[in-house]
Amino acid sequence: MDGTIHYNIGCRRVVILTRLVRKILFALVLEDAVIREENAYRFYESAQDKAGGPEAKQLLKKLCAEELRHRLKLEQLQRRGESEEIAFSRPQEIELLEAEQSWSGLPEQATTRDILKLALIKERQAVRYYQLIAGRSALRSVRDLFVFLAGEESQHTRWVEKMLA
Fold first, then answer.
1. pTM for the predicted model, two decimal places
2. Mean pLDDT of 102-120
C-alpha cells in the first residue's frame, strides 16, 4: 500500500473519531444539564424552609416544580437517544460550563433576600448555559428544547427580579 491510501484511511478514522467524541460530549452535556436541574431543585426545596413570607415561599415552591419539570424533559431526551453531535470551539465556552455548574448551599443565616439574590445569579447562569448549548446543537429537536429551556429560565429570572424589587 502506498502513503495515499494510508492517509485516506487515516482521515476517515479521524472523522469517525471526531464524530464519536462530539456524540460523547453531547451525552455528557445532557447529563450535566440533568444534574444542574436536580441541584436547582434541591436548592429551591431547601430554601423554602429558610425563606420568610408566604410570597417568597410560594415563588420558591414554583421554581422547585419548574426545575423538576425541566429535569424530566431532559431525561426524556436522554431516553429517546437522540444522536447529536455538539462542538465547542472556544475554551471560554467550556470554562462557562464548568464555572457555573455548582449550586452552593445556603448559609445557615441566609435571609430571604440572600436566597433570592443567589437564585437570580443561578437562573441567569442557566439562561446562558442553555443558550450556549442551543447555539451548538445542529439537530432541530435538541436545539428547540434548549431554546425552550433558556426561555423558561429567563422567565424565572423575571419572577425573582419582581420579588426582589
1. 0.79
2. 84
* CATH 1.20.1260.10 given to domain 3-164: yes
Q: Give one DSSP letter per residue of the chain, joined into a string.
A: --HHHHHHHHHHHHHHHHHHHHHHHHHHHHHHHHHHHHHHHHHHHHHHHH--SHHHHHHHHHHHHHHHHHHHHHHHHHHHT----B---SHHHHHHHHHT---PPPPTT--HHHHHHHHHHHHHHHHHHHHHHHHHB-SHHHHHHHHHHHHHHHHHHHHHHHHH-
Looking at every residue in the chain, the average pLDDT score rounds to 81
Q: How many CA atoms lie within 13 A of 48 on its CB side?
A: 14
Q: How far apart are the first and last CA of the chain?
A: 73
pLDDT in tens, 41-96: 999 999 998 999 999 999 999 999 999 999 999 998 888 766 555 555 555 555 55
Q: In whole angstroms, what is the distance from residue 97 CA to residue 144 CA?
A: 19
Domain positions in the chain are 3-164
